[in-house]
Every structure is written in structure tokens, then in C-alpha cells.
Amino acid sequence: MIDFAHDLAGLVPADLAPRSRKIILEDFDLPVDIGFHAFEIGTPQRLRINVEVWLDAANFPETDRIDAAWDYDALRTGILAIVAGRRFNLQETVCRAVYDLVAARAGVVGLRVSTRKPDIYPDCAAVGVELASAGVR
Fold first, then answer.
1. pLDDT digits (tens, 9 = 90+) for 90-109
2. I need a surface site. Which of 26, 41, 61, 70 has the fewest CB within 10 A?
């Protein structure tokens, strides 16, 4: 078995060292009671959530140990808890709640969260909102 960390130690040039570390939860589709039009109230709609999290080096695993990893399950479960049993008028509110959930975690140095309603208009892929921290492009 090849131990890449050991076998390649010292061979990566300094100018190729990672400058950023990012984890992604992409296209998480879930039913949400959202919208302010009368026909939307009480009728869950598909909401697509995307989360990009930039982490500092201390909170990004350098080893293949489970206890060093970011817990994707906790991120997904946290989002489910935000929307469970609650209704929202605005995507902005959902987006901000997810943003705050992630921003409060240790090691987060940059963050982008977007929500999209993909089933609104037949001639549009989706309508949505996005929040991003400073420095995130």
C-alpha cells in the first residue's frame, strides 16, 4: 500500500502549497414550506441549497483520520433542522439561517450559501438568493 503523505513528503514545491481549503454541500434538494403567495402557503416546494465553506488550515484534515474531518452529516442535519416543521415567506430568511449556522463553526474563514427554487418558471433554471462573506468570489 502506498502512503502518499509519507512517500511524497517534501516533494511538493512551496509555491504549490494549498492557499485555500474548501468543502462543499452541493445541490441539496429538500421540500420546504416557503413562499408568500396564497397558493404557496402550506404546499412545500423544492428548495435547492448550496454551501461552500473555506476553512483555515487548522480545521482542514491533514491526515486520513475521521476525527479530523469536517462533519458533512452535521451540516446536512443542521439544515434539515432549520427547515423542519417551519414555514418561511422568503428565501432570504432560509439562506441567512443556513449562513449563520455555518458561520458560527470554528475555522470558517469564508462562506457562500445560496438557495434556489428550481420549479418556479418554465423558462428559468431557478430563482434564488446568495450570501457570501468578504473575499469570496
1. 999 999 999 999 999 989 99
2. 26
Report the alpha-carbon distance of residue 107 to residue 55 in Å, rounded.
Answer: 5
Q: What sign does the dihedral 29-32-34-37 (CA atoms) show?
A: positive
What's the domain count of the chain? 1
pLDDT more than 90, % of the chain: 55
d(CA 69, CA 75): 12
What is the CATH number for 63? 3.30.1130.10
Q: How far apart are CA 24 and CA 40, in angstroms?
A: 30
**Which helix (H) or strand (E) covers residue 93, if one does?**
helix 91-103
- Condensed to tens digits (0 to 9), the pLDDT of residues 41-78 reads 888 899 999 999 999 988 887 777 777 778 888 899 99
Q: Is residue 122 part of a domain?
A: yes
> What is the pTM assigned to this prediction?
0.86
Three cell numbers written together for 133? 462573506
Structural element, H or E, at residue 6:
helix 4-7
